[in-house]
Amino acid sequence: MLSKVRTSALDALADVRDGAIVMVGGFGNAGMPMELVDALIEQGSRDLTIVSNNAGNGTTGLAALLAAGRVRKVICSFPRQTDSFVFDELYRAGKVELELVPQGNLVERIRAAGAGIGGFFTPTGYGTPLAEGKESRVIDGRGYILEYPIHADVALIKGRLADRWGNMVFRKTARNFGPIMASAAKVSVAQVEEIVELGALDPEAIALPGIFVSRVVAVGKPAARSAA
Q1: What residues pair up with 142 in beta bridges, in sequence order?
Q2: CA 87, CA 80: separation in Å to the nearest integer?
Q3: Which domain holds residue 172?
Q4: Do the domain assignments include residue 153?
Q5: What is the pLDDT of residues 79-132, one digit of tens each?
Q6: What is the 3-state secondary structure (H, E, C) of the chain?
């Protein structure tokens, strides 16, 4: 019978290539797949484009990946906050590129990729520097800009439980970007606390069907980490 379970996070990411576009779920640390990001650092791929809500916190997770010199470009909504000094230093030194995308546009661009939508018009960003170089149109008297979907080679997401077919449930807001990122990537890799038997998950609670999950690895209940 089909099983998407991998023995380790490193095994699940063994084929990530240099130059890959990698989506990373999480809203700050909520839903951040720390163990998968750690494995990506160990795996060694370089020149990555990272798509995420923010550009890392403290010195762990995405910040550690950036500090390791493995990221060429970041596409995100919130590149700076009080503890995002790693990205800030790299960006000021010209060592990493940034594409700033308003959060609603970021979500919709990822969702559009998973839904097979070729592009969409949005008023967000119209008339601002974020609209420079983009097609614009006035619809019913309101200005819009054309945004294109963001596709990825790999998506790294974090859930609470999964079965061996990859059906997943999440813990509250840790769900955030996970489902849409999984649908927008060629390969989606999920870390969960526990892998349960088929039929153990309430079908009404499954937020991400296994058809969108390529690989799943159980990491146990992660210990609390300090971002500093």
Answers
A1: 139
A2: 8
A3: 11-120+148-218
A4: yes
A5: 987 778 899 999 999 999 999 999 999 999 999 999 999 999 999 999 999 999
A6: CCCCECCCHHHHCCCCCCCCEEEECCECCECCCHHHHHHHHHHCCCCEEEECCECCECCECHHHHHHCCCEEEEEECECCCCCCHHHHHHHHCCCCEEEECCHHHHHHHHHHHHHCCCCEEECCCCCCHHHCCCCEEEECCEEEEEECCCCEEEEEEECCEEECCCCEECCHHHHCCHHHHHHHEEEEEEEECEEECCCCCCHHHCCECHHHCCEEEECCCCCCCCCC
Query: Does residue 133 come out as left (phi exceeding 0), alpha (psi in the -120 to 50 range) or beta?
Result: left
pTM over 0.85: yes
Residue 227 placed within a domain: no
